[in-house]
Amino acid sequence: MAIKTLGQFIIEKQADFPYAKGELSRLLRDIGIAAKLVNRVVNKAGLADILGQQGDINVQGEVQQKLDVYADTQFINALKMGGECCYVASEEHEEGVDLSTNVTSREAKYIVCIDPLDGSSNIDSNVSVGTIFSIYRRLYADRPIQKEEILQVGRKQVAAGYIIYGSSTMLVYTTGCGVNGFTLDPSIGEFCLSHPDMKIAAQGSIYSINEGYYSKFPQPVKQYIKYCQEIDSATNRPYTSRYIGSMVADIHRNLIKGGVFIYPQTSNHPEGKLRLMYECNPMAFIVEQAGGKATTGKIAILDIQPQLLHQRVPIVIGSSDMVEQVESFYANH
Ligand code: AHM
Ligand code: MG
């Protein structure tokens, strides 16, 4: 069977846009290269001295894992070397990394928001982790990077994607013309097109939420959990509960099988836990492009005007009918 590599696919897509100069293609290529480097280390995490904690606390007040720091360094270095990115906002840095003063990136047109290694607390137990990225266009070429360029609304994303380091490693991305998934073939070291034009079913039978926090959830979410557990053969309930605790893996599974992932407000995290700029927005863009929905329970994630780089939001994301069911509980509350 003929294979199509990520590189070939990107070039082919670029040809659809006659005026494209190849900058976004090169940026995606740079991310793909860093992903392979991170994958190599994640794969031998039990062997290399890379497991465990780095000893530092990141901007979120969370303990940084060694692999968090490694992945962050690899992606930033790849973006720096590639010269197509002028600014990187990362989960691991309080302030973004301004590359626009580097000679190679002075003319760069893109801003990247990234969670280099999401779900990293799962690594020590060999559970899937991921990378999530979001790409925006720089608005003003003639001045230093402005705050409003970094805090653009999710609808302005030019591209977004994730890498899942799982039983196989996959890169899934969108540039706003559907979603395509590539599986890393370790024997040739290439991401190969394996999931063209991914679509999420309008209705699934999986709900994913950390039910241990049930007593801390808002009423509409409690109601929805009870709804999922009720017996109703007409709507195929009760649904199955699946929660890995690694956002990329949970959403990827639901994308493939149909389902809804919820991380709502809790009493510990009154704004929600997951970050808008580099977790929720890119996942929302991908899921919408696959035909699904992503909201806070009230408004579309992609319509939220960001105020802060590390802003948190509640999220309900996945199969459109399931997301709408959750929204109806919020609306009636
Ligand atoms: P991280 O960015 O610190 O890794 O945290 C994000 C992760 C998500 O991958 C996952 O969905 C969530 O935290 C799990 O949180 P909880 O353990 O509260 O269910
Ligand atoms: Mg994260």
Question: What does this molecule look like?
Answer:
Its cofactor is Mg(2+). It is found in: Cytoplasm. Residues 4-196 form the Fructose-1-6-bisphosphatase class I N-terminal domain. Homotetramer. It contains 8 helices and 15 strands. The protein is α+β, with helices and mostly antiparallel strands and 333 residues long. It folds into 2 domains: 6-195, Fructose-1,6-Bisphosphatase, subunit A, domain 1 (Fructose-1,6-Bisphosphatase, Chain A, domain 1), CATH 3.30.540; 206-332, D-Maltodextrin-Binding Protein, domain 2. The model has no long low-confidence stretch (mean pLDDT 92). Strands 4-3-5-6-7-8-9-10 form an 8-stranded mixed beta sheet, sandwiched between helices. 30% of the residues lie in helices and 23% in strands. The chain binds 2,5-anhydro-1,6-di-O-phosphono-D-mannitol and magnesium ion.
Sheet with most strands: strand arrangement: 4-3-5-6-7-8-9-10
**In terms of per-residue confidence, which ranges show pLDDT below 50 for 5 or more consecutive residues?**
none
The number of helical segments is 8
The description of the largest β-sheet is: 8 strands, mixed
Characterize the overall form. Answer: globular
CATH topology category name of the largest domain:
Fructose-1,6-Bisphosphatase, Chain A, domain 1
